[in-house]
# Entry
Amino acid sequence: MPKLLDTINSPDDLKKLSINQLPLLASEIRRLIIDTVSKTGGHLAPSLGVVELTIAIHYVFDTPYDQVIWDVGHQSYTHKILTGRRDKFQTLRQYKGISGFPRREESKFDHFNTGHSSTSISAALGIAEAKKIKRKNSKIIAVIGDGSLMSGMALEGLNHTGDLNADLIIILNDNEMSISPTVGAFSSYLSRIITGYHYVKFRKEIKSFLKTIPGIGSSVYKFVRQAEESLKGLIMPGVFFEELGIRYIGPLQGHHFNHLIDNFRNIKNLSEPTLIHVLTTKGKGYEPAEKNPVLFHGTGPFNKETGEVLKNKLNRPSYTEIFTKTLLKLAKSDEKIIAITAGMSHGTGLFKFAAEFPHRFYDVGIAEQHAVTFAAGLAVEGLHPVVAIYSTFLQRAYDQIVHDV
# Structure
């Protein structure tokens, strides 16, 4: 029986489907991702979590004219499948195959090469401002998630976005419920109201009218604005973004097409910086990955029927295992040893240290610069901090190593 996915070679094909057909398409995409990654290895859980979100983006926006910038990039598998690389997807991360990350040389739909986290907002803002200078009206969408928003670079990008009042859409893929657990039909309904054309038009007209009233107009508008923010603060966790000058929408259920598509269509008509908070489940649709999203964040080949990760044929301990065992042994005899990681407690093996010495362990999140200088502060007080960061991510802290350490 022909698959719906076999008819999709571009976002133009996707737009020919009815919304009712999209859940079936999502199911077929998940099956393809699981089948492929079980053989090639890759970032399974993050990609499974954004299937509906990615479909909705390409369904509503006019890609590649509208440009999608993926943060980290390991969430882009569905994006690749929908943009002409379905037939090559089985070559994922293989020699002469397609990349596991967005790659400009690979497709016109990949607008920025991505490997590090927290770069999407800054890159998307630069692209958006370039479009403004060139007088082009395409929409720019940055998709950020997996803890990347806590990085200093992402916060710098948010700050500049609000200051420029840029025409930029930021989608926060919140797959750990780290900002708010609020979700449901009411939240989606309210978001549709406040992004709708009539509400936005009415809001602007009221603002203009009140400010024309001599003496009291500005005060009344300020009161109305405060009342609106108070209401939103009660039911939405978006005050932080609003204070930066970025309109906050959400939280939206990231696996409900009606929630996503209705709001995206409304937001497409806005011209102000907007952050859409979307709640998703990491590993969605594959039970082993949902139960253990850390293990399946980035995995080698595995048995797709059981979820068992295939072991190294050499059966030798990894560097990480040796490092973890050694550090635990040293820490038992030296109370000054402190372990620090930057959002990679499992990848570096330090989760075992955290379990045994919780008061001597720090996970600072995706903030490599802070991790290194924080360690320097501990060291000047006579402690022995050990900072465990992947070498490719430690590049971000060279200045701190040279200057502060």
Remarks:
- Residues 10 and 82 are 6 Å apart (CA to CA).
- Residues 177-184 have pLDDT under 50 and may be disordered.
- The chain is about 45% helix and 10% strand.
- The beta strands are 67-70, 140-145, 169-174, 247-253, 274-279, 337-341, 361-363, 384-388.
